[in-house]
Specification:
alpha+beta, 6 helices
Length: 179
């Protein structure tokens, strides 16, 4: 067994006590650290929108051809209005950090994907885009089944882990530590 002892002079002991005391104070109230992590995760979330990737770094499913035709081009996925991207937020309550999106129903649909039926109003019809040999056009239907692939945004991947670690290190940084 190794027995290691460090002898400090009075000045060094006072500095060590100060640094350890400040670290102990921070450890008692972690809300500040969680807020740092929340901000870091929001920055990573913004990068995911920019790179169009999920939290694990995998590319989102591409846009459907009909979506590209309706838009008049491909553009960025999930960013027509910017509402979904702007809705990313976090909340700290005690020792709990919650991160999410707040743009119903788009947040849930795009996070998990969805297949659902859309029905026309009674006596009406839906104008449904189609792409065929003759090109792009529309047909009228009483209902249509729409499938939207999952394009996860919220999660905890390698970028989140690194950003969280850096945020905690920054929060724990104490003047005089490491000198």
């Amino acid at each position: 067994m190794l027995d290691l002892r460090i002898k400090l002079d009075e000045k060094e002991q006072a500095r060590a006590d100060s640094v350890l005391g400040e670290l102990a104070d921070r450890a008692e109230n972690i809300e500040g650290g969680l807020r740092n992590v929340g901000e870091a995760i929001l920055q990573v979330t913004d990068v995911l929108f920019e790179t169009q990737t999920d939290p694990q770094g995998r590319p989102w499913a591409p846009l459907a051809l009909t979506t590209i035709m309706l838009r008049g081009g491909s553009g960025h996925i999930l960013q027509v209005s910017g509402r979904l991207r702007r809705s990313a937020s976090y909340n700290v309550a005690g020792n709990v950090l919650r991160v999410g999106l707040n743009a119903p129903p788009y947040d849930t649909v795009h996070q998990f994907g969805s297949t659902h039926e859309i029905n026309a109003k009674p006596g009406g019809a839906l104008k449904v885009p189609v792409v065929g040999n003759a090109g792009f056009g529309f047909v009228l239907r009483a209902s249509v089944i729409v499938s939207i692939p999952a394009r996860p945004i919220i999660g905890f991947g390698p970028r989140h882990e690194e950003a969280s670690r850096d945020a905690i290190e920054d929060w724990l940084a104490v003047d005089g530590l490491g000198e």
